[in-house]
């Protein structure tokens, strides 16, 4: 099974999303705390990633820039953005750069997994 890469600067969100994924059988999760770290993780695991999940607002490199950077070498891996109501407008830019979908925080695990299942097959 391929990996899911989760990038968010909030430990709480990282934990919640990881738990939700594990609850539904997605065990192989790579976590990163900012866009720079995320980019490194993605480069190191190229070809072995089923799905990326990016927060929008993060230090060092935000989620939008991260999408742009990843799409320079990977055009196919789905990228889901985690957004808040206030940064919904940034979704348009994220989509232009190649983001695949998004989910608005806060979300219920069940709803979140439904979005994940649109892109990943176990
Ligand atoms: Mg954030």
SSE diagram, text form:
Elements: E1 3-7, H1 11-23, E2 29-32, H2 35-44, E3 49-55, H3 63-70, E4 79-83, H4 90-97, E5 101-104, H5 109-119
Parallel strand pairs: 1-2, 1-3, 3-4, 4-5
Helix pairs in contact: 1-5, 2-3, 3-4
**Name of the CATH first level:** Alpha Beta
Please state how the strands of the largest beta sheet are arranged side by side. Answer: 2-1-3-4-5
Structural Rg: 13 Å
Helix count, per DSSP? 5
Tally of individual domains? 1
Taking all residues together, what is the mean pLDDT?
94
Per the CATH scheme, the topology name is Rossmann fold
Helix and strand string, N-terminal first?
EHEHEHEHEH
* Uncertain stretches: none
How many strands appear in the DSSP assignment? Answer: 5
Summarize the structure.
With 122 residues, the chain is of the alpha/beta class. The protein has helices at residues 11-23, 35-44, 63-70, 90-97, 109-119; strands at 3-7, 29-32, 49-55, 79-83, 101-104.
Which terms summarize this structure?
single chain, Rossmann fold
């Amino acid at each position: 099974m391929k990996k899911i890469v989760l990038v968010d600067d909030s430990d709480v969100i990282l934990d919640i999303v990881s738990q939700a994924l594990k609850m539904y059988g997605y065990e192989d999760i790579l976590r990163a705390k900012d866009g720079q770290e995320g980019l490194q993780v993605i480069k190191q695991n190229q070809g072995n990633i089923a799905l990326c999940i990016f927060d929008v607002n993060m230090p060092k490199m935000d989620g939008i820039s991260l999408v742009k950077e990843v799409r320079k070498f990977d055009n196919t891996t789905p990228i889901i953005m985690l957004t808040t109501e206030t940064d919904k407008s940034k979704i348009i830019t994220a989509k232009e750069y190649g983001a695949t979908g998004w989910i608005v925080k806060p979300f219920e695990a069940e709803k979140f997994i439904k979005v994940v299942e649109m892109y990943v097959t176990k």
